[in-house]
Design brief:
The structure is a single chain. The chain is of the alpha+beta class. It folds into 6 domains: about 130 residues, 3-Layer(aba) Sandwich (Rossmann fold), CATH 3.40.50.2300; about 110 residues, Beta-Lactamase (2-Layer Sandwich), CATH 3.30.450; about 110 residues, PAS domain (Beta-Lactamase), CATH 3.30.450.20; about 140 residues, 2-Layer Sandwich (Beta-Lactamase); about 140 residues, Beta-Lactamase; about 140 residues, Histidine kinase-like ATPase, C-terminal domain (Heat Shock Protein 90), CATH 3.30.565.10. Helix content is about 40%, strand content about 25%. The protein is built from 25 helices and 33 strands. The protein has a 6-stranded antiparallel β-sheet with strand order 18-17-16-21-20-19, sandwiched between helices. Helix 1 links the parallel strand 1 and strand 2. The longest helix has about 70 residues. About 0% of the residues have low confidence.
Length: about 900
């Protein structure tokens, strides 16, 4: 605030007004006088100007000095007002004091009266300013106290409670309003009351403190009558010239918890004015920002916020929603050392008074959290890349790069178990390893106690991370090492993740967690790579299963795939044999034959694990069959995995060590079981198809034999009948003989069609390219067409058995002649996938178009009823389809489709 004191002088005497103003400004150069001739003009000046003190005459035209004072007090009850009058009396003085005048001076006397007036003005203004500052401090104190977690109580010199914050309820059980106005001894047991009052009186008399005000411990009295151990720190201040004491009280029963919180807390409580300036900062400010609170008081807080974050901070604290969410912002703050640190601020309360408008803000250092967030974001990116690696080396190299980037561990490495299982060999090493180690570190099984190899193998066999902060002082290790900080993390069964640094106590708990997460993703990647590799090799091996020619061959090949590709040692394939009444061993691996007794048939009532899995149709895994009632529980077999092969049987996979079959083994064994089931299904279909084909061939042979016998046995008597009819015609001429001859012709046609039906049903296996137009012309010339007309529009070459194609076309042409008459027009044309034969005859009833292909169906007296059945039979033998529709001329049209083009 400026040191200048603006004063309004109101006097109706212009000369005296000018003299008084000059003397005031000369006596105190801080005073700047604005004058007015009467109360009305004085009120106008107060409305337009900033005035800190009014000096007024008493007797003035219009309103007198006391009336002017009354109106001023309505506007500002605390504005200093000095009555400077030439009329002096006790009555005027009494009225002035009653009206609330600040001071009363008479104009009589020498020039010293102006000195007194100037002094009174300065004193009155400074007192008012001090009161305002005190009020502002009280408001700030109240805002901080209201949000404090400790009980805060203010008392006067009579030890009466004048203020209590909400936290008193949690300590004493009273609401603040219940304590305000009550003596402080309300909160004290009887034994403490008199000593307290004596101590207060002694301090007020002598000013000497009997105790350390910063840490007083005693037992306080709770509302329920119980005693509460508390600690108290207090101080003294003044309000309006009156002495006050304020104490911060903490429940001592929670002391240790609060102490731990305070010692480790990084929160800062601050009061920010409406123009973003610091008005108060708690002591933790120095720990968080490096500044002592006094260094920042009055400073504009936004100046310390990173330029890129200022708008976000202003936006967060600029929109106030009473009753809504508390304003919150994260931003970078420039510390005393010049670096930026991430802070998070939450506005917990808002102050609005005449002098202060702003927030109580709680701020904490979130730099570590932001760093963790950055680390976790990077970790997600690294682990995502691990998911796309395709080889073991690629995955190992990526993991080492990741751990160096995330936790600055360039002395790290991935050590994978060798094929013989006797050593942990480096698959990828950090950039610093070659410079720190004379040779690439590897760790053999069975290393001497105290060696690095023994330490590595102990960690590999364990399940948790081994964390060593200072390797040089680590007693179990005798061998020297360039590393000091060390984290050893097993990568499942694959190997060991070594994270190290030459600096001691390098890795935080977060670093260890990051290494563990990264190790878990590396294990998953190595599992996937191994699984994909084994699956690829397994697919190559299982392709041979479908080429096997018998169930026994499939079983043998499944055992080979399980031992050679999946690397199981004890494998057995059992297939269900209905005649044997159970699962019969068909193929076993060599180790199985050595370890297990001679295999027997597992029946439903035998109690075997194999039969139970087969019957349930689900995979069964046992970490140790010695804990079960398995038939092989007394053999060397321990780990067992049984995979059903559908309805065909089971494949058993076993090892002589317990608990060695994992999820990958289940997955791969399941693939092999599915492949074996598919192969057995194919073999069964092939076998059934071969059996059906053989049966059909036998049936065709019998049908051919029957057709030959029928043809021979029927034709001979028929020829005899024809001869006898000719002889009978020579002896007599009768109309009955003509009917007999027609019957003989029909019998001949029936015999021919029956033979055709018997021989045309076999599938076509020797189709050849055939010129469709040529065959149509040849068939037309073969059939007795009389006066019929052919329109051949057929084009192209198709694949067919030419002889059987002729049979089909001739039958369709004869059908057109039989139903269309001697002058019918027959059209043969091409379809996109076949051909058609149409006529302009009477056509076929739509309701009977499906029936015309039935054997024996005929609408002609001369027809046998087998012609169109033979057409359908020839089409089926080629794999074609045939249907009857209406032709463009209204006659019948037969469309043959599904025909393969030879062009």
């Amino acid at each position: 605030m400026s040191d200048r004191i603006p004063v309004l002088l109101v006097d109706d005497d212009p000369d005296l007004r000018a003299v008084t103003a000059s003397f005031l400004e000369r006596e105190a150069d801080r005073i700047a006088v604005e004058t007015a001739p009467d109360a009305a003009d004085g009120l106008d000046v107060l409305a337009d100007r900033n005035v800190e003190c009014v000096v007024s005459d008493y007797e003035m035209p219009g309103r007198d000095g006391l009336a002017f004072l009354a109106e001023v007090r309505e506007r500002d009850p605390d504005l200093p007002f000095i009555l400077f009058t030439g009329r002096g009396s006790e009555e005027v003085a009494s009225e002035a004091i009653s009206a609330g005048v600040t001071d009363y001076l008479q104009k009589r006397g020498g020039t010293e009266r102006y000195e007194r007036l100037a002094n009174r003005v300065v004193e009155a203004v400074e007192k008012r300013r001090a009161e305002r500052d005190a009020e502002q401090a009280v408001e700030q104190f109240r805002a901080v106290a209201e949000g404090a977690s400790d009980a805060i109580i203010s008392i006067d010199a009579d030890s009466v409670i004048r203020f209590a914050n909400p936290a008193v309820e949690s300590v004493f059980g009273y609401e603040p309003s219940e304590l305000e106005g009550e003596p402080l001894t309300t909160l004290m047991p009887e034994r403490h009351r008199d000593p307290h009052l004596e101590a207060v009186d002694g301090y007020l008399d002598t000013g000497e403190r009997g105790v350390d005000w910063s840490n007083v411990r005693f037992d306080a009295l709770h509302r329920d009558g119980s005693e509460v151990p508390v600690s108290l720190s207090y101080g003294e201040y003044q309000v309006g010239g009156k002495r006050r004491f304020v104490g911060v009280i903490r429940d001592e029963s929670e002391r240790e918890r609060h102490r731990a919180f305070i010692e480790h807390a990084s929160d800062v409580v601050a009061v920010l004015s409406n123009d973003w300036r610091f008005r108060y900062l708690s002591p933790s400010c120095e720990r968080v920002t490096g500044y002592e609170p006094s260094e920042l008081l009055g400073e504009r807080s936004l100046e310390y916020v990173h330029p890129e974050d200022r708008e976000a901070v202003k936006a967060a604290f600029g929109r106030v929603d009473p009753g809504g969410d508390l304003p919150t912002a994260e931003y970078r703050f420039e510390t005393a050392g010049g670096e930026y640190r991430w802070l998070e601020s939450v506005g917990s309360d808002r102050i609005e008074t005449d002098e202060v408008e702003g927030y109580v803000v709680t701020t904490r250092d979130v730099s570590a959290r932001k760093e963790r967030e950055r680390t976790l974001a990077s970790l997600r990116e690294w682990t995502r890349e691990l998911n796309y690696t395709r080889t073991t080396d690629e995955a190992a190299e990526l993991a080492v790069e990741a751990v160096d980037d995330l936790i600055d561990a360039g002395l790290s490495g991935i050590h994978l178990l060798s094929e013989d299982g006797d050593s942990l060999q480096p698959a990828a090493l950090g950039d610093s390893v070659p410079t720190m180690f004379e040779e690439q570190p590897s760790y053999d099984r069975g290393g001497d106690p105290g060696s690095r190899a023994a330490l590595a193998w102990d960690a590999f066999r364990g399940e948790e991370s081994a964390v060593i902060d200072e390797l040089s002082t680590y007693e179990p290790l005798d061998e020297s090492s360039p590393a000091e900080s060390l984290v050893l993390r097993p990568i499942g069964d694959h190997g060991l993740f070594v994270v190290s640094s030459p600096e001691p106590h390098k890795f935080t708990d977060t670093d260890v967690l990051v290494a563990e997460i990264l190790s878990g993703h590396l294990e998953a990647a190595l599992d996937r790579i191994e699984r994909e590799s084994r699956v690829e090799r397994l697919h190559g091996a299982t392709r041979t299963l479908v080429r096997a020619e018998s169930r026994e061959d499939i079983a043998e090949r499944a055992v080979e795939a399980a031992t050679d590709v999946l690397e199981f040692s004890i494998v057995a394939v059992r297939l269900y044999d209905e005649a044997a009444g159970g699962l019969v061993p068909v193929a076993v691996s060599d180790p199985a034959a050595e370890v297990l007794p001679e295999r027997e048939t597992f029946t439903p009532d035998g109690g075997s694990l194999n039969w139970a899995a087969f019957e349930a149709g689900e995979l069964r895994k046992f970490d140790d069959i010695r804990t079960t009632d398995a038939l092989d529980a007394d053999t060397a077999l321990r780990s067992l995995l049984i995979v059903p092969i559908g309805e065909f049987g089971t494949i058993s996979f076993g090892e002589t060590e317990p608990g060695v079959l994992g999820g990958v083994d289940e997955y791969l064994a399941g693939i092999l079981g599915t492949a074996a089931e598919t192969a057995l299904q194919a073999e069964a279909r092939t076998r059934r198809l071969a059996e059906r084909t053989a049966e059909l061939e036998r049936q065709n042979d019998r049908l051919e034999e029957f057709a030959g016998v029928v043809s021979h046995d029927l034709r001979n008597p028929l020829e005899v009948a024809r001869g006898r009819t000719e002889l009978a015609r020579e002896e007599c001429n009768s109309d009955h003989l003509a009917a007999v001859e027609r019957a003989h012709d029909r019998m001949t046609a029936l015999i021919d069609d029956l033979l055709t039906l018997a021989r045309e049903g076999a599938p076509v296996t020797d189709a050849e390219p055939v010129d469709l137009r040529r065959v149509v012309g040849s068939c037309w010339r073969t059939v007795d067409t009389r006066d019929a007309t052919l329109r051949s529009e057929a084009e192209g070459t198709i694949r067919a058995d030419e002889g059987r194609l002729r049979q089909l076309l001739e039958n369709l042409i004869r059908n057109a002649l039989e139903h269309g008459g001697e002058d019918v027009t027959v059209t043969v044309g091409t379809l996109p996938d076949g051909f058609y034969v149409a006529d302009d005859g009477p056509g076929i009833d739509p309701d009977r178009r499906e029936e015309v292909f039935d054997a024996g169906h005929s609408t002609s007296q001369s027809g046998t009823g087998f012609g169109l059945r033979i057409v359908e039979q020839v089409a089926d033998a080629h794999g074609w389809s045939v249907r009857a529709v209406e032709s463009e001329a209204g006659g019948a049209r037969f469309e043959v489709t599904g025909v393969e083009s030879a062009e």
